[in-house]
């Protein structure tokens, strides 16, 4: 039994390995599938920002999924990446990125690195990307994959995104890639005045994608439709909102 368990763990570990340094990241078939994804899943829908379309067309999504999923890397849906997590549907990655409205000068904080794919897309569009992943195994894998694809302007940290990355603040934009009941106070404090947050927020009727803009000590939110994400874990599930007199318009 122990030998079988160790063999199973070895299979899982190999599936999570990033591409080896120097390995080719693309085949003609994969490049064609990515082009098709951009045209059929993104451009034909509501993704109109040419910089976002170019970024989605540049990042080799197959490098961020387990080996047994790579022939499905450009499917119109989420895929499992192990550790109970998923890589989001390409359309969701693109629309969340578009809602950040990046111009290339920004310092961006991502909460929930996962596979590293969203961070790689952000790296094409922002000056600096800081990404936090609560699972250290996924954080290590994403860091190695980002190096392999040449995303040199991304830093990855293993930790609880609830606390943000205070020494790198303030951030021009924050992207949350896990469903959360609220924006933690630490993240609002690390966002510059007028900065934008895109996050799936939990409401009584389910999760909804929201864009928040910091206005003083409060956030003004707009809503962009129903979504479904894995839940944000850690301190956000343990600590009640601070009673500090601030308000969020979506409340």
What topology emerges from the helices and strands here?
Layout: H1 2-16, H2 28-43, H3 50-58, E1 79-82, E2 85-87, H4 90-100, E3 107-111, H5 117-123, E4 128-133, H6 136-148, E5 154-158, E6 171-176, H7 185-190, E7 191-203, E8 206-215, E9 218-226
Parallel strand pairs: 3-4, 3-6, 4-5, 6-7
Antiparallel strand pairs: 1-2, 7-8, 8-9
Looking at the structure, what is the overall shape?
globular
The H/E string reads: HHHEEHEHEHEEHEEE
Residues in helices, as a percent range:
25-40%
- According to CATH, the homologous superfamily of one domain is Vaccinia Virus protein VP39
What is the name of the CATH topology of one domain? Rossmann fold
The biggest sheet amounts to: 7 strands, mixed
Question: Main sheet: which strands, in order across?
Answer: 5-4-3-6-7-8-9
Q: How many helices does DSSP assign?
A: 7
The low-pLDDT segments are 1-15, 243-247
| CATH classification, class level of one domain | Alpha Beta
Integer-rounded radius of gyration: 18 Å
Strand content: 15-25%
């Amino acid at each position: 039994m122990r030998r079988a368990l160790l063999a199973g763990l070895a299979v899982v570990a190999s599936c999570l390995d990033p591409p080896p340094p120097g390995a080719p990241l693309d085949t003609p078939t994969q490049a064609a599938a990515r082009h098709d994804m951009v045209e059929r899943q993104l451009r034909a829908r509501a993704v109109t920002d040419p910089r976002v379309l170019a970024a989605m067309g540049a990042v080799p999504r197959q490098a961020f999924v387990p080996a047994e999923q790579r022939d499905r890397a450009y499917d119109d849906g989420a895929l499992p990446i192990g550790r109970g997590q998923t890589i989001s549907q390409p359309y969701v990655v693109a629309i969340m990125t578009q809602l950040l409205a990046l111009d290339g000068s920004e310092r961006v904080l991502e909460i929930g690195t996962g596979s590293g794919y969203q961070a790689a897309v952000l790296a094409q569009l922002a000056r600096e990307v800081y990404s936090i992943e609560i699972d250290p195994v996924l954080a290590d894998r994403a860091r190695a994959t980002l190096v392999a694809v040449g995303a040199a302007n991304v830093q990855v940290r293993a930790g609880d995104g609830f606390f943000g990355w205070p020494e790198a603040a303030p951030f021009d934009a924050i992207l949350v890639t896990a469903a959360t009941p609220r924006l933690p106070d630490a993240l609002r404090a690390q966002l510059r005045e007028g900065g934008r947050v895109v996050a799936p927020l939990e409401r009584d009727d389910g999760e909804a994608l929201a864009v928040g803009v910091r206005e003083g000590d409060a956030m003004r939110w707009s809503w962009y439709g129903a979504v479904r994400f894995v839940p944000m874990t850690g301190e956000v599930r343990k600590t009640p909102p601070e009673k500090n007199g601030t308000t969020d318009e979506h409340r």
